[in-house]
Design goal:
The complex is a heterodimer. Chain A is mainly alpha-helical. Chain A is built from twelve helices and no strands. Chain A is about 75% helix and about 0% strand. Chain B has a single domain, classed as Rossmann fold (3-Layer(aba) Sandwich). The chains are: A mainly alpha, B alpha/beta.
Chain lengths: ~270, ~270
């Protein structure tokens, strides 16, 4: 119970931090405006994907979610541990008798909550926009899948950044590690994908070829954003990249277990 | 007399980056503490003294269970319950109030703590609703002291607690420590403000290059070092480390200028 209460306390602290003055408007613009735009009757996307239902709107808006919310998770958590280490507060915290596993849970829950809450509130508003604009909202099962996948994505990014923050001796190194990971998985992921395709004899001149799409689907299992995309595609009938839901589920479980285990172990061994 | 904590052959080496290796993650053993033997008794104020880099903070952190090293008669977990720790110069910051910060730390202990009483004790009652960002260093020190006093600790470990406090607060602080000692709380304190320390401590432990050179009451230490009865802590440090008091200069703070009395462990 104490671990949960402490997590809520950390969440409150993070939600009142100055950086939220940037994150809230950024999220509001990206989430609400993308929903508004994608619910327009004349809206079309360059990939040729047809927008036929409310879930299609939600699915397409995740392209913006991946950009903004994962960056938001990095911005919320980059000093999650390194700031306390620099200021000496970490020494006070580590000298308390609370079990380190519980402390790790509190830190993770607090930081994850501070980024999930704005996301959740704005997504609820975007549902109201959908209702207003196209008189339709996604089904409950689709909503559950969307929020669960998004919660997982934000948790993965929060753990990645908190791990970086615990490894780094200063805040500069912490944010460099976090942004480095973010740029790799969000902007540069095409490079390892095409590299692997080239090495395995799959043609890279046509990125829409079935061979390349299937290989990209496999490589995506090694990226948190890729697994997020796979999870959301599970509810779409007209999207099939040849990936079994079993593999997607295993990847999601591994992406949850391994970083959390590493983070807990790191907190258990952490020294001021 | 029953002891609160016994240290036998406690050693700890910091892991530092090994720049001689091509591997960025390569570490080597750095400075630390070597074979420390000590008994901490209830109601005693023990002053840890020694030059910069002597290992005072490392020893304090080891006592508080921040380093997982052997040689204690109590486990890390037990020590964290029984010991209140006040680190050196904690810079409390953030957009939360003093009482919220205290509640956060209180949640890390399985005890119900009356935060209002605690802020009263450390003289923070008028600041309990202030944001941490707006606190002066003296007030931050008081907040650290409040955290150390959580859960009525049997042993208080304080690293340079007098830094940043005004003279009145220093006197009040000393009085508080004496009162706690009278109630049976053992106190381990390090301070470079030796005049205050001399009037406060019952015993001293002199550390140098990670080793405990001498320990005991001021009278015993003076006797062991063949010093006059009115000699102070500076003379004790000089005598134990082999520095000529007439030649004290900042140059002497360089490690290579200080004699190293090799007792055990790998020499740097």
């Amino acid at each position: 119970m104490n671990a949960f209460s402490l997590g809520v306390q950390i969440m409150k602290e993070r939600l009142t931090a100055g950086r939220m003055m940037v994150i809230w408007p950024l999220f509001a613009i990206i989430i609400l405006f993308s929903t508004w735009g994608l619910t327009d009757e004349n809206a079309s996307v360059s990939t040729g994907y047809d927008i036929e239902s409310a879930y299609d709107v939600m699915f397409l808006s995740t392209a913006f979610v991946i950009w903004s919310c994962t960056l938001g998770a990095v911005l919320v958590s980059f000093d999650g541990i390194s700031r306390d280490r620099t200021s000496g507060v970490l020494e006070v915290k580590l000298s308390q008798p609370m079990e380190r596993k519980k402390l790790a849970f509190s830190i993770l829950f607090g930081h994850w909550g501070a980024i999930f809450l704005p996301f959740f509130v704005l997504q609820c508003i975007s549902l109201a926009i959908m209702w207003f604009r196209i008189d339709e909202i996604p089904t409950l099962s689709n909503l559950f899948l969307f929020f669960l996948s998004s919660a997982l994505l934000l948790m993965w990014w929060t753990v990645i950044q908190l791990l970086a923050s615990s490894w780094a001796n200063d805040i500069g190194l912490s944010i460099s590690l976090g942004l480095g990971a973010w740029i790799t998985f969000t902007l540069l992921w095409l490079i390892p994908t095409t590299l692997i395709a080239g090495l395995s004899g799959v043609g890279v001149d046509d990125l829409n070829s079935s061979e390349y799409v299937e290989l990209a689907a496999i490589v995506d299992l090694f990226s948190p954003n890729g697994v997020y995309g796979h999870l959301l595609e599970m509810s779409l009938d007209d999207v099939d990249r040849g990936m079994s839901p079993l593999y997607i589920s295993i990847a999601a479980i591994l992406w949850s277990i391994i970083p959390i285990h590493l983070f807990t172990r790191r907190i258990e061994r952490l020294q001021p | 007399m029953e002891t609160i904590l016994t240290l036998s052959e406690v050693s700890w080496r910091h892991k530092v980056r090994d720049f001689s290796s091509w591997k960025p993650w390569a570490k080597r053993d750095g400075a630390g503490i070597y074979s420390i033997n000590m008994e901490i008794k209830p109601g005693t104020i023990l002053g840890l003294i020694g030059p910069n880099g002597a290992g005072k903070t490392t020893l304090m952190r080891a006592i508080c269970g921040l380093y997982d090293c052997d040689g204690f008669n109590k486990s890390c977990e037990t020590r964290r319950i029984e010991i209140g720790y006040m680190p050196e110069q904690v810079r409390w910051e953030g957009r939360i109030t003093v009482s919220q910060a205290l509640k956060s730390i209180a949640m890390m202990r399985n005890e119900t703590i009356n935060v209002e009483d605690l802020v009263q004790t450390v003289g923070l009652a008028s600041k309990s609703d202030q944001m941490l960002d707006n606190l002066s260093q003296g007030m931050r020190q008081r907040l650290s002291l409040a955290c150390a006093l959580f859960g009525n600790p049997k042993l208080l470990v304080m690293d340079e607690p007098l830094n940043g406090l005004d003279p009145l607060a220093q006197r009040a602080f000393s009085n508080l420590l004496k009162n706690l000692a009278k109630k049976g709380v053992a106190i381990v304190i390090s301070s470079h403000q030796v005049a205050d320390l001399e009037s406060l401590v019952d015993e001293i432990a002199l550390l140098h290059q990670g080793q405990l050179l001498i320990e005991g009451s001021l009278t015993i230490v003076r006797k062991k070092l063949d010093l006059k009865e009115d000699s102070g802590i500076v003379e004790m440090i000089c005598s134990a480390t082999g520095i000529d008091p007439e030649e004290i200069s900042l140059e002497l703070s360089r490690d290579n200028m200080l004699p190293f009395k090799h007792i055990g462990g790998e020499e740097e």
